[in-house]
Amino acid sequence: MKDITYTIEIQAPIETVFHCINDNEKQKIWMEGLQETKYPEGLDLDNPIGTKFIQKIKEGGRVIEYKGEVIAYDEPTLCAVQIGNNSFSVKAFYELSKTEEGTRLDYRAEMGTANLLTKVMGFLFSGMTKRILHKQMMNLKRLSEQEAYVNV
Question: In CATH terms, is domain 4-150 a member of 2.170.120.40?
């Protein structure tokens, strides 16, 4: 599967959008299936790069555990994580910039697979992956714009 990109304009301040991307409880609202995020070694909010985490995500009827790490962080313009399991890994980059209307979010995911089977499965399900991403980005947009409206 090739890398995926997605760009969306959000009518909310950059700080609000970044908070919705970065906050564990807000993530549960826009990331479908996310059950919880844990930090086995703790979370240093002043220096989050290198922080390891575990996310539990409900997929179908099962809850799957993914291990991750914060690989880049520059509040409020960049948050990037690497997350995966034995089958695949993803490096997800959320890059934000201010616009006249609010915030532009450029999302990029670099996909990696562990073997030929997961590579084939990734190709076969690429359309579904793009639909899920679109739905999540629309959920993030709605949440960010609601948060901005509440905080006016």
Answer: no
